[in-house]
Fold these 2 entries.
Entry 1:
Amino acid sequence: MRLSGKTALVTGSSSGIGRAIALRFAREGADVAINGRDEGKIASVVKEAEAFGRRALGIRANVGSFAESRSMVERTQSEFGHLDILVCSAGVFHHTPFLKLSEEEWDEVLTVDLKGLFNCTRTAIARMAERRWGRIVYITATSGINPPPQMAHIAAAKTGAHGFARSIAAEFASAGVTVNVIAPGLVDTPILGNFTEEALKEFSRRVPIGRIGRPEEIAEAALYFASDESAYVTGQILNMSGGTVI
Ligand SMILES: NC(=O)c1ccc[n+]([C@@H]2O[C@H](COP(=O)([O-])OP(=O)(O)OC[C@H]3O[C@@H](n4cnc5c(N)ncnc54)[C@H](OP(=O)(O)O)[C@@H]3O)[C@@H](O)[C@H]2O)c1
């Protein structure tokens, strides 16, 4: 098993892409901390991870809060003894014309999708560097590479995440910690409920591979970035969009 003896915290793993990643890691031998805001959803993913024979820890925390993120990372470290892998997948996604974009919506997206990465990484990376092994993976979006209209707030957060990841990668490469990014296009998860049916159809039509992505496909890439096999890869952004952005 590729993650045998490793421990991982996956933010936003009560649903969608984060859930698929946490379960893939558990199947590969990792103990996993499951995070989100909904207790019921967290508990159900904890059960699914435990079914692979791994330890699973559910932690309800808002990644937009520095204090809650710090205590989530510290709790994972103390319950599992150490934290090897951090995946930040928690995110909110709205498709909003700029002239309808409110200050609250802007703040929410920037706080969860961008500041959330800082909040979790700030505590986690110090111990990874001390142990001379760590893997950090951020789930962003192709809107951070090729920003579409009506997603200024998402594009700002995801583009910011790309710069953040590359700087941290450069700073911690010599400490044995790699930092990589997966930027998905459309993926079949509950977050797509935030699109109107019309917008979703329009986006799906533009995917050259002819369909939207599956969370399990993103999880395979996350597994690579979380494993020993990717030891020589850091600061990279993997675009997984079925050819939408080339
Ligand atoms: N699906 C796509 O088409 C797509 C495309 C590009 C990028 N992405 C990115 O992929 C990531 C995961 O999205 P998804 O598609 O898996 O959506 P999802 O199924 O809605 O999952 C989002 C997850 O984030 C959690 N979350 C939201 N706000 C949080 C907060 N403040 N603190 C902690 N957890 C929070 C949710 O927890 P609860 O449900 O428990 O509240 C849930 O577990 C996001 O960053 C998103 O921007 C998705």
Entry 2:
Amino acid sequence: MADLSVTFLGLHLKNPIIVASSGLTATKEGVRKAVEAGAGAVVLKSLFEEQLRAEIAGVAGSAEVHPEAEAFLAGMGMNEGSDEYLDLIRASRAASDVPIIASVNCSGDSAWAEFAARLESAGADAIELNLGVVPTDPSVSASAIEDKLVSLVGSVARSVKIPVCSKLGSSYTNTGNLAARLSKAGSRGLTLFNRFYRMDVDLDAMSLSAGPMRSSPEAYHESLRWISVLEGRVGAELCASGGVYDGLTALRLITVGANAVQMCSAVYAKGYSTITSTVAELHSWLDNHGIARVADLRGRLARRNSDKPELYGRLHYVKALTGQA
Ligand SMILES: Cc1cc2nc3c(=O)[nH]c(=O)nc-3n(C[C@H](O)[C@H](O)[C@H](O)COP(=O)(O)O)c2cc1C
């Protein structure tokens, strides 16, 4: 059988399938199910920066809460404090033989950065920072937003010895430039991409409502493009997130350069057993193709290994010009 082991964030993973931060990993039972199903690593649900700032200020519950945080917290019963979160890390670490990655959903404020050391002391093997900023003020420049994120990541990375990973949205002007800056600031990995909370409108109630929480299997193309372009060019190791529903999609993302992939919506849709079937699919595809190690596949179709790099930016255009579109 093919060797599925990979490294991500300098950690040894027995396979590249990571269960993503979500309600699936909000309890030690959820983590246990993910591990028993065969996950290579688990990212715990996010602790929201607003929770930490409220606690640090000693005024829990009175801090201004980001609308996205509020919706996640309300929808998922996630209003425990940091002590419960540290307990979740300890319990998950004690019960698991795979890396346990803590997660903080950040708005860019560095005030809580020193708290990261407590995540480390509780036993987290790494920290994923969900840089979940949705800018709503048109007067703030892209560079001001990015400067804040880079500064935050640097503060957290300096506070801990464990690796730090940044989880980004897909709407930056130049994702590669931000990726390189985050890497230089101390982000050992990048998770591409976060799925932002979707808004909708309830016309009858004349109020805002939540849009669909889950992604569809087509969502992976966005990560695939960016991972193919950034692999080996920004310093950080890359993890795909978004639309990974099966083993073949995971292999496509690894082929363009992902060290590992995260699964979330597929597990919500099909249960934890989908992790087991995804890992089995990796085995059977690699065995059928005579590839001994999944790591040997990584980056084969990344831009930096291509003799036609122009295809990575303008595939459709090139096809149109050559009459293949
Ligand atoms: C119900 C739900 C809750 C989520 N909660 C978090 C969270 O707390 N922190 C986080 O970083 N991402 C969260 N996410 C985003 C996922 O980790 C993942 O990045 C996203 O759903 C895209 O992957 P997918 O297509 O496999 O679902 C959540 C997603 C869903 C569907």
